[in-house]
Design goal:
Layout (H helix, E strand, L loop, with lengths): L2 H15 L2 H11 L3 H8 L1 H4 L27 H12 L13 H15 L18 E2 L6 E10 L3 E6 L5 E5 L3 E5 L6 E3 L9 E4 L2 E4 L3 E6 L3 H4 L2 E9 L8 E12 L2 E10 L14 E6 L4 E6 L23 E6 L16 H4 L1 E4 L3 E8 L4 E7 L5 E5 L42 E3 L5 E6 L12 E5 L5 E7 L2 E9 L4 E7 L5 E6 L4 E8 L9
Antiparallel strand pairs: 1-2, 2-27, 3-4, 4-5, 5-6, 7-8, 9-10, 10-11, 11-12, 13-14, 14-15, 15-16, 17-18, 18-19, 19-20, 21-22, 22-23, 23-24, 25-26, 26-27
Amino acid sequence: MSIQKLLLWLGLAIVLAGAGGAWYFVYYAQLDIYVPLYVQHCQQCHGDRLQGTELAGALVDPDPKQRGKHWVSTQQILSRMAAAHAPLSNVTYTNELSDEQIKGLAIFVGERQRAQRFAEFKFDRQMRIPDQVVSEQHNFRMETVAQGLEPLVFSIQPLPDGRLLVTEKERGLSIVDPDSGSLQLIKGTPETGGSLDILGVQYGNGWLLDVATHPDYAQNSWIYLHYTHLCAQCGGLLASSMNRLDRGRIVDGAWVDVQTLWQAPLEFYSVTPDTGAGGRIAFDDAGHVFISVGIKSADEGDESDKSPQDLDSPYGKIHRIRDDGSVPEDNPYALSTNPLRRTVWTYGHRSPQGLEWHPQRGVAWNSEMGARGGDELNELLPGHNYGWPFHSRGLEYSGTFVARHLQDALEFDLADVTRTLVDITPSPAISSFIFYTGQAFPKWQHNVLIGSLKGSSLFRMVFDGDKLVHIETLLHDVARIRDIEVGDDGLVYLLLESKAGSRIVKLVPVDGEVVADI
């Protein structure tokens, strides 16, 4: 083990020692608290594998291959549980279980119905790439564009000439040749740090995150890079880092003309911001750029830290600037005396994994991970509060309702929390998403295509305005889908993450009947 990794282990141990929520996570990664609860209250009737008995029906599909193909929400499960148990006077369903326990059991059952387990992140699992796929509106096949990438990847960005940019968190920024699948590493990009795998979760600092081209890239060649900047002068045994947004150009294989557009003061640099960093970029159609900044890892259990609700802290926010780094005059806090507050667009976010501009509604949307449940898809309205860590539709890792710090929030009103468009509980660990506007899949026009990490699935969501009206699972149990983009060719590109080697694939439409199904 290198000295850098040894110091990272030591530093994380010190941080987690003071972070109760993080220790809850480590503990319950080994023991799911709802297993003994299910055994005590449910197993006699529903079976030790949720397969059903003569006393009660199965809670999961008897065919394991079918599990996870159909969308299910916790609210649906709760309604079914209540209806099924209401006529049974001898069942202790409501007499002995708290509201938290009932909701937790519903999440537990929902996870099994989606073929998920609480502490199974599928980072070590082999990718399962189908030859051809049948979907409701378009049949398609998956073709590999590039493989053998580093395990920790984050973003892809198609270029007008058919090549792609890709960020590997520790290796750097590269250009992918789609014909050969080869990668050209760009020289001079920001310094990167190390990482550690702790119970399937990757910790580290100094990671490259999102990469995006300017909407007028063909004219100005600007490329925007969101990363966690390592601070050499912050002192201490471990390097500190924090989100930063740069723009630059690639000339002769080198990163040049670099300008820093957004950076937090050094006082907010930390040894644990990267895992929940957010790190996405989105442009609107009026010269603005949005960036997402998630929570620090320590926020999970630090009772004194309410930073997503603190407008003078960069954490747990969506920030908005002009594409040259200046502050727009119509930002909700543009007149604040605190320069950091001036860029805040929305707040109360936990782990924002996706960020996109809705071309029809003229507003930014984001996807966001909760804790155990509470994944969200949000419409980002200026100055609005999205609740974390005072409110979530999911549960804490400890099994309690999300209400941390609520007793101390004298000026907080739950009625002020902006309603999420889609509550995704049980949580598949939602990742990146797009609004599809290509021509290769015409029946998907303006649909949301959204990936997942733990769920290893790709979903298609249909909206009527801001109302979800339909969900289809396009891919199930394929691999951790870290990013999703649409090329100028209209094809859908996925960045698949795996410890054995990540890869880029594309979805290609297939005419006629397809006999194989995932």
